[in-house]
Amino acid sequence: PYILTVNGERYRGNLTLLVLPDGAGLEVINTLPLEPYLAGVIGAEMPSYWETEALRAQTIASRTYSLYIKRRFGADRQWDVRKTQANQVYRGLSAESATIWEAIRATQGKILTVSGSNGGEEIFAAYFSSTCAGHTENSQNVFGDRSPSLDGVACSYCAGVSRHSFLAWPKVSIPVDQVNQRLVDRYPKLSDLGGIATIEPTRLSEYVGLQRITQVRLTGTNGKTDTLRAEDLRLAIDPTGRKIKSACCSLRRESGNFVFDEGKGFGHGVGLCQYGAEGMAREGFSCESILQFYFPGSHLRQYY
User: Which of 39, 160, 164, 195 is deepest in the core (most CB within 10 A)?
Assistant: First the structure.
């Protein structure tokens, strides 16, 4: 029943402030039940005016993802999920609406599971991103984890509803010095390369009309090399993810710049394609059908 304010934004629940070691600042933790938490997530991740079945599919995916991250990482820290796109965006009361609460109440306690190796069922990382632009990606190629329900699927549903700037985005040029600095800041071991001279794709996923870089080789000015997953490279260079919108692009060096060109899609491309879910909902598909399409072989279960 409590409402608190942090940096001008209102949130439900309780507040804990932890002083970080060596005066590094504060860790701000908002504690609340899962369903009210989701009320601050769904409207931040998907427009609240979208189709009911798309909102319900997003709610179940977000609930599943939250529980998976809590179970896998939460035991080693004093919080469960981040409020940013590093996990899923959480904006508290500003994201809530009547349609969002309807989607939450209609799906309360429902999650997705996959068949486990021991014969039982287990929660998995039900990833989602904005626009796949034609084909979702195998999670192993992006995040390194493996799940039978996170293999890529051909998707034609986002093409008719996604923004044009998400389906095809313009050339992005970033100075070599800036790329070097951002990569070394994120991955200090790359300083061993003495400055990055070239970045070359070494692994690609090829689909009809779509090519996604999944791994790159970095070659330094001293001749040493290292590799990175393409998604890690993208978000190190552009932490917002709003310029280099995806790894579905070409990559080259032109004089003093690294150039990302012929870009398609928005986000990492794994799991639920959000604009695709909206496209399916507009065509009359149910929440269950949407989830089964993007998470093939998964099971919809009543967790609580």
Answer: 39
* Model pLDDT for residues 65-104, shown as the tens digit of each residue: 999 999 999 888 999 999 999 999 999 999 999 999 999 9
Rounded Cα distance between 192 and 220, Å, is: 8
Residues 6+ apart with CB under 8 A from 217: 199, 200, 202, 225, 226, 227
How far, in Å, CA of 252 to CA of 261, rounded? 8
What kind and span of H or E run contains 296? none
- Helices 52-73, 287-294: crossing angle, 10 deg rounding: 50
**pLDDT of 124 strictly over 90:** yes
**Cα–Cα distance measured from residue 150 to residue 203, given in angstroms and rounded to the nearest whole number:** 19
Give yes or no for residue 121 having a pLDDT over 90: yes
**Cα separations in angstroms, 166 against 49, 101, 159, 241, 274:** 19, 28, 10, 12, 12
Which contiguous run of DSSP H or E holds residue 261?
A: strand 257-261
Distance CA 182, CA 202 (A): 21
Phi then psi dihedrals of residue 3, to 5 deg: -120, 130
> Tokens 């940096």 sit at which residue?
7
pLDDT of residue 122: 94
Q: How far is CA 134 from CA 11, 158, 217, 282, in A?
A: 37, 7, 26, 18
Burial class for 100, CB neighbours closer than 10 Å (0-12, 13-18, 19+): buried
Q: Which pTM was predicted? A: 0.95
Nearest Cα neighbor of 265 from 286, 234, 227 is 234
Residue 140 has pLDDT above 80, yes or no: yes
Burial of 18 (0-12, 13-18, 19+ CB in 10 A): exposed
Split at pLDDT 50, 70, 90, the class of 118 is confident
Closest by alpha carbon to 232, among 187, 272, 178? Answer: 187
- Range 26-38 average pLDDT: 96
